[in-house]
Design goal:
Blueprint lengths: L6 E6 L9 H17 L4 E4 L13 H11 L4 E8 L5 H14 L6 E4 L6 H7 L3 H5 L1 H13 L16 E4 L4 H8 L2 E5 L1 H4 L8 H9 L11 E9 L3 H21 L10 H6 L2 H12 L1 E4 L1 H15 L3 E5 L5 H14 L25
Length: 354
Amino acid sequence: MALPLLRISILDRANARDGFSASDALNRVLERAQRAEEWGYHRFWVAEHHAVPGIAGSVPAVLMAAVAARTHSIRVGSGGIMLPNHRPLVVAEQAATLEALHPGRIDLGVGRSVGFTPAVRDALRAGKQEAEEFEDHLAQLLAYLSGAADITARPRNDSATPVFVLATGSGIDIAARAGLGVVLGGPAVFRTDQNGTIPALDRYRTQFRPSRWFERPYIMVSANVAVAATRQAARELLLPEAFALARSRTTGEFAALAPVSPTEWAELTLREKEAVEKSLSTSIYGTASEVWTQIQHLLAPSGADELLITGGAFDVPAQAESDRLLARIFPPRRAPQPGRPPGDSRHPIDAHPA
């Protein structure tokens, strides 16, 4: 039942869980990364969120360092660092330092999103203008990583760290022009045209310009995924996050994950219930065979090189079992051997440890 020649990775947002400390939430991320490495996942990424009660992870570079130190071979990255919130030089130095400490294992995913509320944006000194300057700031970041800037970022990176763009808004076009990998998630992954393709990805492939980082287009699609013994059990694994997201639209606050009782479900407004179902409709969940079929349908129109698993769960043991079952669907991809023949057109990232 294995899906061949596809990499599978995890993005963990470091969800807080009701009744548990922030320390517990962050340590669960490290433990999950260790299991992911054992089970053959290709990458383990962490994210950036500020002043969100339900998210313990706010500084990707720090959490990446902890994950990389607790693992040995899995690639570690950010999904992503929000470039409007940071000086490009600082981001380059963080990535380069991690690369120097863990050669061939670090990825840098960047995005153009800003803080969720005006207060957070003010605290970060980043707003709409900074988001609009994303392409210029990305170019500066790449110049520092490649050594082409007016000053040399230390330690030198020499384009060793693959860079990916989270495809929000114009991000997919920016990634194509810069010759970077792209990460596409959310409803856009499930939305196809009359030809059964995803227009944004067709545009990315057409506009792509080879770069120091990527010789050809590289596409990661992300989706919430849960595997369990039954479809209902898998749905319940994803329900706390979908519930918290729906409630946040009413309360303005994304809360720590908690089990959803029948009473709490009954108290949701019709609009909130619709939001929960909408979230679940763009998720993949069920038994291993059901998930295998759903992933095939997801990947067919995208032609993706890699699947990035997302989705927070309150039940840590059930999430671990989901990760284990999912890993069995995908055979591990091995790193290419040295001495490949001239003219080999492998993707540059294939030279990094798998």
